């Protein structure tokens, strides 16, 4: 990798929606940040100029352990070659994962081979998104109601996730079930202590054999102490850090950048509000969450199309793009969405995700919409891979936890397209309407 592309902070998002959230936090903090859709070549890195943070968007959250190990072996080697000080493995703020799918313990074991610092911080929760960790227990709001907070194993949606239901609130136990033992805890009471005492607390836990250290997070202010620990200890040896975008928030609270302004690629990324769409908007919803269902119901400005498959096996399953393309060409906003099928298993869900991604590719090639919205973490991961683009930069916030990005592609008609990747639990009920109005 080119030395000119070296950046102190690197991150890999285990799905696309989470990766774009981290991109937004870093960009809003003034760091020149680019999210790549595949490991970048030296030529690509040289072409974008100096960066303060480099990200890669992946799909490890939906992978089995063997595929995670294979994927992150390449990713870890790439980031190590780039010389990053902090390698952030970005997980969902609800930590939803399981031994068989999205195994976080496997990801940590794989990436540690490239980042040997014994200090592996795991930041629990993301207070700004109403995710909280107290005494190692994870809590999350249901939707955007700040009063409706549940322990994660009693959360009305995440405890019933169709692939990775969260049935354990203690994140140490959750990770142990995935194969990671001896995770120590620094709870929220430590943040009132002098920093030297917290630093000594970390040393004591490492000396006692901790494989990683979980940090509570109840307030955004808690992240400053965690960030200082990451910043100072990463100066001794490159380290792995694990958690939601709260890891990036912690880093930004402690670290300083020698880049005061963004280059042309990111010019004014944080200062320009998102205006009204100048053409028809295409939105694609594959999330099965109740919140996404409410967002679809509230999307009154769209022509809505429920997607029905035209084939029933893995070779023929597809959705018809023609009516969507016709409506977009007529200047109409279109929202296409899937419904949960009865008795749908993991294989059929994967087939549906691939068919949805193929639909997006066909629509974009034929209609060339300049603003796109994707709802659903797994849907976003597959959809982004289907587009002929190589990177994303921050464009503007849409609402809390939801970011609009700018696509970077070699194809001129695709380059600069504005795109929203939204997790199923993110955004208010009017988020799809906001995608039109700005």
From TrEMBL:
Enzyme class, spelled out: transferase
UniProt KW keywords: Kinase, Transferase
E.C. designation(s): 2.7.1.-
Source domain of life: Bacteria
The protein's name in its UniProt record: Four-carbon acid sugar kinase family protein
């Amino acid at each position: 990798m080119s030395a000119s592309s070296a950046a102190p902070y690197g991150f890999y998002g285990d799905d696309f929606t989470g990766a774009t959230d981290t991109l937004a936090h870093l960009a809003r903090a003034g760091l020149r940040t680019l999210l790549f859709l595949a490991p970048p070549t030296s030529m690509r890195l040289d072409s974008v100029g100096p960066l303060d943070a480099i990200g890669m968007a992946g799909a490890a959250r939906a992978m089995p352990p063997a595929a995670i190990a294979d994927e992150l072996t390449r990713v870890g080697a790439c980031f190590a070659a780039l010389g990053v000080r902090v390698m952030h493995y970005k997980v969902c703020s609800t930590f939803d994962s399981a031994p068989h799918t999205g195994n976080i313990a496997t990801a940590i074991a794989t990436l540690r081979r490239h980042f040997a610092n014994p200090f592996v911080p795991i930041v629990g929760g993301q207070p700004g998104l109403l995710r909280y960790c107290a005494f190692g227990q994870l809590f999350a709001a249901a939707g955007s109601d700040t009063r409706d907070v549940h322990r994660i194993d009693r959360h009305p949606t995440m405890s019933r996730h169709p692939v990775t239901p969260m049935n354990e609130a203690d994140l140490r136990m959750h990770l142990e079930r995935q194969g990671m033992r001896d995770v120590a805890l620094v709870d929220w009471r430590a943040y009132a202590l002098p920093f030297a005492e917290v630093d000594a607390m970390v040393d004591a836990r490492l000396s006692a054999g901790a494989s990683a250290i979980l940090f509570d997070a109840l307030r955004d202010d808690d992240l400053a102490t965690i960030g200082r620990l990451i910043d100072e200890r990463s100066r001794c040896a490159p380290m792995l850090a694990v958690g939601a975008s709260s890891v990036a928030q912690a880093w930004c609270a402690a670290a300083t950048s020698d880049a005061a302004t963004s280059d042309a690629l990111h010019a004014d990324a944080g200062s320009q509000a998102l205006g009204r769409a100048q053409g028809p908007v295409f939105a694609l919803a594959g999330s099965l969450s109740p919140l996404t269902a409410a967002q679809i119901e509230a999307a009154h400005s769209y022509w809505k199309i429920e997607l029905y498959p035209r084939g029933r096996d893995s070779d023929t399953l597809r959705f018809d793009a023609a009516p969507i393309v016709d409506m977009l060409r007529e200047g109409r906003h279109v929202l296409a969405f899937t419904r949960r099928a009865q008795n749908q298993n993991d294989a059929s869900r994967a087939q549906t995700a691939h068919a949805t991604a193929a639909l997006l590719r066909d629509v974009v090639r034929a209609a060339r919409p300049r603003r796109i919205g994707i709802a659903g973490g797994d849907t976003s991961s597959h959809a982004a891979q289907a587009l002929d683009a190589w990177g994303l930069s921050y464009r503007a916030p849409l609402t809390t936890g939801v970011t609009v990005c700018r696509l970077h592609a070699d194809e001129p008609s695709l380059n600069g397209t504005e795109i929203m990747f939204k997790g199923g639990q993110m955004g208010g009920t009017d988020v799809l309407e906001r995608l039109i109005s700005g």
